[in-house]
Amino acid sequence: QVQLVESGGGLVQAGGSLRLSCAASGRTFSRYAMGWFRQAPGKEREFVAAITRSGGNTYLTDSVKGRFTISRDNAKNTVYLQMNSLKPEDTAVYFCASPAGPLIDWARASSVAQWEYWGQGTQVTVSS
Fold it and tell me: How far apart are CA 31 and CA 10, in angstroms?
């Protein structure tokens, strides 16, 4: 079965950086888009970033543009989220996600419903 395992979270001061990794297994990684979401306490899970199968196109939510970068290494079955200039409002549990099939409705990529498989999450805490 599909498994997604995140790592790289932690505690960082505002202005600092972290790189999250998500290792995927259970199917051919390069055939599927990948995404990152986050969920802060008491809030709904929200879209952060997504990347196409080849890595040729990426999508970022407005609040992280210019600070976060999503990338993937298909040889390593891993997707990354490089987070720079972190702010306290970035504090959340970060989840990676993968869709059920090779095709994804990119117009709705920010919807949780577009993603089938989820990792267990990794905590990111940004102190002020």
Answer: 30
CB 87 within 8 A of CB 14: yes
Segment 96-123, tens digit of pLDDT = 999 999 888 888 999 999 999 999 999 9
DSSP annotation string for the chain:
--EEEEE--EEEETT--EEEEEEEESS-GGGS-EEEEEE-TTS--EEEEEE-TTSS-EEE-GGGTTTEEEEEETTTTEEEEEE-S--GGG-EEEEEEE-SSS---GGGTTSGGG--EE---EEEEEE-
Residues 17-36: tens digit of each pLDDT: 999 999 999 999 999 999 99
